[in-house]
TrEMBL record:
<feature type="signal peptide">
    <location>
        <begin position="1"/>
        <end position="18"/>
    </location>
</feature>
<dbReference type="InterPro" id="IPR037019">
    <property type="entry name" value="Glyco_hydro_7_sf"/>
</dbReference>
<keyword id="KW-0119">Carbohydrate metabolism</keyword>
<comment type="similarity">
    <text>Belongs to the glycosyl hydrolase 7 (cellulase C) family.</text>
</comment>
<protein>
    <recommendedName>
        <fullName>Glucanase</fullName>
        <ecNumber>3.2.1.-</ecNumber>
    </recommendedName>
</protein>
<dbReference type="GO" id="GO:0030245">
    <property type="term" value="P:cellulose catabolic process"/>
</dbReference>
<keyword id="KW-0624">Polysaccharide degradation</keyword>
<dbReference type="InterPro" id="IPR013320">
    <property type="entry name" value="ConA-like_dom_sf"/>
</dbReference>
<dbReference type="GO" id="GO:0016162">
    <property type="term" value="F:cellulose 1,4-beta-cellobiosidase activity"/>
</dbReference>
<dbReference type="InterPro" id="IPR001722">
    <property type="entry name" value="Glyco_hydro_7"/>
</dbReference>
<keyword id="KW-0136">Cellulose degradation</keyword>
<keyword id="KW-0732">Signal</keyword>
<keyword id="KW-0378">Hydrolase</keyword>
<keyword id="KW-0326">Glycosidase</keyword>
<dbReference type="Pfam" id="PF00840">
    <property type="entry name" value="Glyco_hydro_7"/>
</dbReference>
Length: 448
């Protein structure tokens, strides 16, 4: 379950997704390499990443007046959604100083709290930096190194794919586009996105009851999402989230935005701890999260080609030269060590969850999204909605009977992931993503 990430207040304004281009801060995209592998070797390309526009300073096109501050829209600049898009400009970003984002070209470091800013979300751009890099991972594996050693309960270092528009939704009402991080969507149909499809989400905006910097509008931004990696040092999950519509789809009510709406918000997750193996992942465990390791995710098709239908998602780890397979489920009635349709059906049945994964098209729909092209997202965030207990909590829901299968997600006590606590005690928590590779099975990693 990947919940919407909130924007944070910093400098002169709260983050907002604006449509025009501001010129008060220079935009320089941090470099991040992408390596393509074949059986004969690997070739590195120099790409870059761009900060989501939801975190950026947004101001009037004629000056520096904020379009949105705290939880409030400026009613003069933004009397309605269409006018707001014309009046507001999204500016460049100070990646390291304001957002705690640094890169050496191969590894991206992302810190939870820098000054008053909390969290960030970034997208990989193509080599020319004008559009998002699109990935089709069918009959391929996707590999990266990660360091989650400083991520405590309640923090999520998430690397995933989203079926965002390649150009960021560039249009007559969105001049900024991908170079300024516009066009975000995911399977949670987030309603805290302040501009969607070139229109402000301001009409009927409701301030958040828990987050002083956020709120929700009447529109949500929905699309297929493949959560390769949602993790801290306690727990991790890999989760496909299919949707019934292609690309960015706007939802406008509780039904289409909700659990039975356009997207499968729950997904079909593989969390080893939730599946009964409590000794596999964590500090000092089989995959030792006190140091860096490599994550390999393979997307297997029914005919062994990129043209086939996605039938299985398999996970491997490599640490200290040792290849470590995902453990098999230890829950009675659920078998397997990878995500398949049979695994998902069994998991939903045993855990007593509604199988929205199946009704939204399952793995076949997820694979079709990759064929159209998915954007790589790299982020860090804390959770004002559920305090990340769906990922790492001793019980989720918190009132559920912990003796029942699927309830325990990790070792984090209830309340440990409260954002106020996390931001106060662990603001310097940093996730590092690097050595990103794509290629045929077995070409992107080595064992000793």
């Amino acid at each position: 379950m990947h919940t919407a990430i909130r924007a944070a207040v910093f400098g002169l304004s709260a983050g907002a997704l604006a449509q025009q281009i501001g010129t008060l801060t220079k935009e320089t995209h941090p470099p991040l390499s992408l390596t393509h592998c074949t059986a004969s070797g690997c070739t590195k390309e120099q790409h870059s990443v761009v900060l989501d526009a939801n975190w950026r300073w947004v101001h009037s096109t004629s000056g520096s007046n904020n379009c949105y501050s705290g939880q409030t829209w400026d009613t003069t600049l933004c009397p309605d959604g269409a006018t707001c898009a014309k009046n507001c400009a999204v500016d460049g970003a100070d990646y390291s100083g304001t957002y705690g984002v640094t890169s050496d070209g191969d590894t991206l470091s992302v810190t939870l709290k820098t000054g008053s800013n909390v969290g960030s979300r970034l997208y990989m751009l193509g080599v020319k930096g004008q559009n998002y890099e699109l990935f089709d991972l069918l009959n391929q594996e996707f590999t990266f190194d990660v360091d989650v050693s400083t991520l405590p309960c309640g923090v999520n270092g998430a690397l995933y794919f989203s079926e965002m528009p390649r150009d960021g939704g560039l249009s007559a009402t969105n001049k900024a586009g991908a170079p300024y991080g516009t066009g975000y969507c995911d399977s949670q149909c987030p309603k805290d996105i302040k501009f969607i499809n070139g229109k402000a989400n301001s009409d009927g905006w409701v301030p958040s009851s828990g987050d002083k910097n956020s709120g929700a509008g009447p529109m949500g931004a929905c699309c297929n999402e493949m959560d390769i990696w949602e993790a801290n040092k306690i727990s991790t999950a890999v989760t496909p989230h299919p949707c019934t519509k292609n690309g960015l789809a706007v939802c406008t009510d509780d039904t289409t935005c909700g659990a039975a709406g356009i997207c499968d918000r729950a997904g079909c997750d593989f969390n080893a701890y939730r599946l009964g193996n409590t000794s596999f992942y964590g500090p000092g465990k089989t995959v030792d999260t006190s140091s860096k390791f490599t994550v390999v995710t393979q997307f297997i098709t029914d005919d062994g080609t990129a043209a086939g239908n996605l039938k299985e998602i398999r996970r491997l780890y490599v640490q200290n030269g040792k290849v470590i397979g995902q453990p098999k489920s230890d829950i009675t009635g659920i078998s397997g060590d990878s995500i398949t349709e049979d695994f998902c059906k069994a998991q939903k049945s045993v855990f007593g969850d509604t199988n929205t994964f199946d009704t939204h098209g399952g793995l076949k729909t997820m694979g079709a999204a990759f064929k159209r092209g998915m954007t790589l997202v790299l982020s860090i965030w804390d959770d004002y909605t559920a305090e990340m207990e769906w990922l790492d909590g001793v019980a989720y829901p918190t009132t559920a009977d912990t003796s029942k299968p699927g309830v325990a997600r990790g070792t984090c006590a209830t309340g440990n992931g409260a954002p106020a606590t996390v931001e106060s005690n662990s603001g310097s928590a940093t996730v590092k993503y690097g050595n990103i590779k794509v290629g045929p099975f077995g070409t992107t990693y080595k064992s000793s």
